[in-house]
Each structure stands twice: as structure tokens, then as C-alpha cells.
Design goal:
Elements (H helix, E strand, L loop, with lengths): L7 E5 L4 H12 L3 E8 L6 H12 L4 E6 L38 H16 L3 E3 L15 H13 L2 H5 L6 E3 L7 H10 L24 H13 L10
Parallel strand pairs: 1-2, 1-4, 2-3, 4-5
Helix pairs in contact: 1-6, 6-7
Length: 235
């Protein structure tokens, strides 16, 4: 039940480790959660079931799943059936390297939809699990992009104009954290990482491949955090 004058936040919820953590942070800060996920033509569609379970875990006020067909645009190993997810690893420490798993303009598209919903439900905050440290190759995960999007949305929306450019805030609490630090933060807030999926190329049953860059980063992060990954498949 909606409380009078409650703080509302849109949370972009992918079903992964990072978005689960930002949902926990938003809840800890007293926000009522309006979780937003996308069926955008991604191969790892199992992540939507993970997102649904996480929305329930966090007692979201609402969980909205929007259908977009970015697969028709292609250009990414996550959406284009003609491109394979790389398994040999990529040089993620070099900013000039943009991996083939980058989905063209994905965060621009997702944030725009989140802002539209925020106007309708009366939320002035959007929480995103972007991280510039582990994913520096993704241009739409960088602080300068987030700042530019926040300014654009405050200029180009009714709520932004009426609030004189001080309506919407894009919250990125993980953007400068190491993955192991994100895990520790989430565990302190009670996140059940067994509900999450990070793999770019899971099998039909949702079992992670263990070889893609996202699987490698997750495995390394849990090792650095000194805790077992509850979602790791049994040997």
C-alpha cells in the first residue's frame, strides 16, 4: 500500500549482481521501489525470471517489464544471433576497448524509459547498477555519460522544466566500486546473490557458462570478497 509522501525510486533491475545491490541500497535509503526490467531481445532471457524473483525479494511496489526488440538492430553478441559471446576473455582494463557484448545505446534507451515511468509514478530518483571500474569499456557506464543524461532529462521533461532542472537524479552508487566491494556492500544489506545471474551465455536451464567475461569477473570478485558464490553451479 502506498504511503502518503513516500519516497519513490525507479530501479533498473536486470537480474544481475549489480542491479540487486542497488535495489538493496535504494531500499536501505528508505525508497519505495518501482523496478523496471526489459525484454530487449537478449539471448540470456533467463535474467528476466531472476529480476522477477528479486523484485519480490525486495518487496517492490511494482515490477514493470517492457518489451523492446533491440535484436532487430543487432550489433552486440548479447542480442545478435550471428555473433557469439566471446569466451577467451577481453582486456577490460583498457578504456579504448569496447567489447562485442556492448549493446548499442542500451543504457541511453533504458534510462529514457525509466525517466518516462518516473514522471508517471512521481519518482525523482533512478537507481542504476552501472560500474565504470570493471566495465570501463562500456561508454554508457561512465560518470560523464550519466551526468550528461541526467542534465538532458531534466531539460527535456515536464517534471524537469517545472522543477527548473532539479527534478531527476540518476543514482549510481556502485560506479567507482570494485566488484568485490559491491558484493560486500550487498551482503551487509542482506542481498541473496543466489537469486542473481551474471552470465552472458547461460544454457537453456539458466546454468552459467563459467567462461564469459561476466562469469570470470563474478568468480574473481567472490574470491576477492572471501565468500562463496551461492549461485555458482556445483561441480
Amino acid at each position: 500500500m502506498e504511503a502518503v509522501n513516500e519516497k519513490k525510486a525507479i530501479v533498473l533491475l536486470s537480474g544481475g549482481l549489480d542491479s540487486a545491490t542497488v535495489a538493496a541500497i535504494a531500499r536501505d535509503q528508505g525508497f519505495a521501489l518501482y523496478c523496471l526490467s526489459f525484454s530487449y531481445g537478449q539471448k540470456q532471457v533467463i535474467e528476466l525470471e531472476k529480476a522477477r524473483r528479486l523484485a519480490g525479494f525486495f518487496e517492490a511496489r511494482q515490477h514493470l517489464v517492457l518489451n523492446l526488440d533491440l535484436g532487430r538492430i543487432g550489433g552486440s553478441a548479447l542480442t545478435d544471433q550471428g555473433l557469439e559471446v566471446p569466451k577467451e576473455g577481453a582486456d577490460l582494463d583498457r578504456e579504448e576497448v569496447i567489447p562485442i557484448t556492448y549493446v548499442p545505446a542500451r543504457n541511453t534507451i533504458f534510462i529514457a524509459h525509466a525517466a518516462a515511468w518516473a514522471e508517471v509514478v512521481g519518482a525523482g530518483d533512478i537507481f542504476l547498477g552501472v560500474n565504470a571500474l570493471d566495465y570501463s569499456g562500456y561508454p554508457d557506464c561512465r560518470p560523464e555519460f550519466i551526468a550528461a543524461m541526467e542534465r538532458a532529462l531534466n531539460l527535456g521533461t515536464r517534471e524537469g522544466v517545472e522543477a527548473q532542472g532539479k527534478w531527476l537524479r540518476l543514482r549510481t552508487p556502485l560506479i567507482e566500486l570494485k566488484k568485490s566491494e559491491i558484493i560486500r556492500r550487498g551482503l551487509a544489506l542482506g542481498v541473496d546473490y543466489g537469486l542473481t545471474l551474471s552470465c552472458y551465455d547461460p544454457d537453456a536451464s539458466g546454468r552459467p557458462c563459467g567462461l564469459c567475461d561476466s562469469c570470470r569477473l563474478r568468480r574473481q570478485a567472490f574470491a576477492e570478497a572471501g565468500v562463496a558464490d551461492p549461485a555458482a553451479p556445483a561441480d
